[in-house]
Specification:
With about 350 residues, the chain is α/β, with parallel strands linked by helices. The chain is about 30% helix and about 20% strand. The chain has an eleven-stranded mixed sheet, sandwiched between helices. A five-stranded parallel sheet has the order 16-15-17-12-18, with helices on both faces. Strands 13-14 form a two-stranded antiparallel sheet. A hairpin with a 6-residue loop joins strand 9 (about 180) and strand 10 (about 190). Helix 1 packs across helix 6 (about 120-130) and helix 11 (about 305-325) packs parallel to helix 12 (about 340-350). The radius of gyration is 20 Å and the shape is globular. The mean pLDDT is about 95. The structure holds threonylcarbamoyladenylate and magnesium ion. The site of magnesium ion has 3 residues, from loops.
């Protein structure tokens, strides 16, 4: 299949037509790039799973661009859900509702619920509005790889497999949306993202957090968001997260990275040991700490003063290590506050929960 790449609005109608005719279009959103199809077309949705190599039991998020579309897809919007909609839509928040029968089984993976998001990105909104259709879209990566935050990474994974790629700017947030289940009494966060725990608590008072986020699941345990059980965000390199004891009081990371001399000393021991085994070493650091390390590739994710700069560069950094043939990555551990919770959730998964405590 020839994949067309659209860079300017003059040719945007082509993308709209492809969606209406049941094809696949990758488009930018404020979180990550999405792989879009008409959510009401079972065949088109099935093709998303094929292009990504995604397991069929992992349901998709349906994207909308007005609230009328929401009421066509869900049976009930609780007062708690309404508060979240009023405060955070459009934006990086996905809400789980009870689904109407119109939502295809291919989208919900047979669940009675459906995930809905109203994105803020103008190009994604335009695709939904111009086509007049709700759009099912997972992240536009091959299943298991870090999500793409720019068109170049989508091209690497999807060229020749989908009809069209809309080339917009890099995604601002860089990690996928927060997912909140609104079908119970209390809002339950199923995946942390750009709408933080603190922001949700400020609006709702009480929230709960699905245990799949905070603990690695034990044998036989199921997360409420089926996708959270799969290996994710995995670069080819082995990733380790280094926790500096001086940054913690108990489990609480009260200081950004702790004593930097200690950090520098241990990192240099790890790097040396890896080099003795002929491994190429990468480091995930920040603008403020990158000068401490000497490795084959030291990447700064952004500044400690604004963790949104860190989230926006995380997936691109993981993919860059693969481009450079890095074998082992050592990463700093970020405090799980604000968007730090989402950053650490993705990092922990990419590291397969491998920590080194120093
Ligand atoms: O930011 C985002 O959410 C991006 C952009 C493209 O919008 N999309 C995205 O989709 O991250 P995906 O498919 O990579 O992740 C969707 C997650 C999966 O973990 C899936 O299991 C969960 O949403 N999910 C979908 N429907 C659900 C449902 N009815 N109940 C619980 N979890 C659901
Ligand atoms: Mg994904």
């Amino acid at each position: 299949m020839k994949t067309i790449i659209i860079k300017d609005l003059d040719h945007f109608n082509e993308a709209t037509r492809i969606i209406q005719e049941g094809g696949l279009v990758a488009a930018p959103t404020e979180t990550v790039y999405g792989l879009c199809a008409n959510a009401l077309n079972e065949v088109a949705v099935g093709n998303i799973f094929k292009a990504k190599g995604r397991p069929n039991d992992n349901p998709l998020i349906v994207h909308i661009a007005d609230l009328k579309m929401l009421y066509e897809l869900v049976t009930e919007v609780s007062p708690m859900a309404q508060k979240l909609i009023d405060n955070f839509w459009p934006g990086p928040l996905t809400l789980i509702f009870k689904a109407k029968p119109i939502v295809p089984q291919a989208v919900t993976a047979g669940l009675a619920t459906v995930a809905i998001r109203f994105p803020s990105h103008p190009l994604m909104q335009k695709l939904i509005k111009d086509s007049g259709l709700p759009i099912a879209a997972p992240s536009a990566n091959t299943s298991g790889k870090p999500s793409p935050t720019n068109a170049q990474r989508v091209i690497e994974d999807m060229d020749g497999k989908i009809d069209c790629i809309i080339d917009g700017a890099s995604s601002e947030i860089g990690v996928e949306s927060t997912i909140v289940d609104t079908t119970g009494e209390i809002a339950t966060v199923l995946r942390p993202g750009g709408i933080t725990y603190e922001m949700l608590e400020a609006i709702l008072g009480e929230i709960t957090i699905d245990p799949a986020i905070t603990n690695k699941l034990k044998e036989g345990e199921q997360p409420k968001a089926p996708g959270m059980k799969y290996t994710h965000y995995s670069p080819n390199a082995e990733v380790f997260i280094v926790r500096n004891s001086s940054a913690y009081v108990g489990d609480n990371q009260h200081n950004m990275f702790g004593d930097l001399d200690n950090l520098k000393k241990h990192f240099s021991t790890f790097i040396q040991a890896a080099h003795e085994k002929d491994k190429k070493v990468g480091i995930l650091a920040t603008d403020e700490t990158k000068h401490l390390f000497e490795a084959d590739l030291v990447l700064s994710l952004g500044t400690e003063n604004d963790l949104l700069t860190v989230s926006s560069h995380l997936f691109e950094a993981l993919r860059t290590f693969d481009d450079q043939g890095i074998d082992i990555v050592y990463s700093l551990a970020f405090p799980k506050e604000g968007i730090g919770a989402a950053i650490m959730n993705r990092l922990e998964k990419s590291a397969g929960y491998h920590f080194i405590n120093i």
